Amino acid sequence: MPPEIVQWLQNMSLATAIRESAIVFPVILSLHLTGMGLFGGMILMTDLRLLGIALTKHPVSDIVNGLRPWKHLGLTLTAGCGILLLWSKAAIYYPNPYLRLKLVIFALIIIHAVVFRGVYRHVADLDHTKAIPRRAKMAAVLSMVLWISVLSAGRWIGYWEPKGGPAAADRVVLQLDADASR
Amino acid sequence: MALFLAFDASNNPLNTNAWAFPVCEILHILGFAVAIGTITMVDLRLLGIGLKKETAADLLKGTFAWTLGGLALVLITGPLIFSSDPTMYLRNASFRFKLTMLVLAIIFNYTIHRWVALKKAQGGLAVLTGVVSLALWVSVIFGGIFIAFV
Question: Does the beta carbon of A8 lie under 8 angstroms from any beta carbon of chain B?
């Protein structure tokens, strides 16, 4: 994507409003994290159930299917807010290598979903097996590794500074936000 | 309080090592995701809108160790993050709000929330407990994020 496009995205009025508001940006960021509490916690419990480590008294399908709509709600909240945050500082985040790493991990997550779709689609089959098959366990372990990687890459976005001095573009914007709120 | 204010944070590894602070933050987020995610499972059951094949009591027992583990991770990494700049945190209104809500949320979780879930309470009391629990934990998250913005 050429830099002009990300700059144009960032300059759009709604993006500017989000970025420059002392309250809207942190509220969206808080909702991004709230979604993580819902989604992250439940995806870990799903994976731990598949591994036979947590909630073992409950049938696999009860937990996996029962958590699914809430995981989707959490993912929608997290991703929706994440897109707004990204949009509001598109030009600032564009060169950030950790953002790019995060997007690559998302691509791996999509591949994971496609490769292991059978595990999650036929989860009721696991209720009656003596031991959870290796394939399901592998899906669970990889899922945890991938989501923790996304979290780590995401957090690191805030620590990267562009070349040419310590004046990180992010800080400049935070300063602008602070000025606007005064 | 004076002890914290006299604390010299400049040679704290969290401020001198480039990795220490972000790693603490990542573990802090991971910890609260596990703790709040598992508590939310019980809340959704209390509200009667999720995981209806299980009872709230069973979900509470099944998630108990994980909630505690998540909280332990949060309560280890939180004070470490705090130690990076105690003066700033103590003066920060959002931090004080967060800490208050966190104490209330933890007390609520291990008293009323637990009692209602184990009693297999239904109806208004269960719904109220689920709503209060979710509101407390969400306010802790908002308080935490706003530390950087007030």
Answer: no
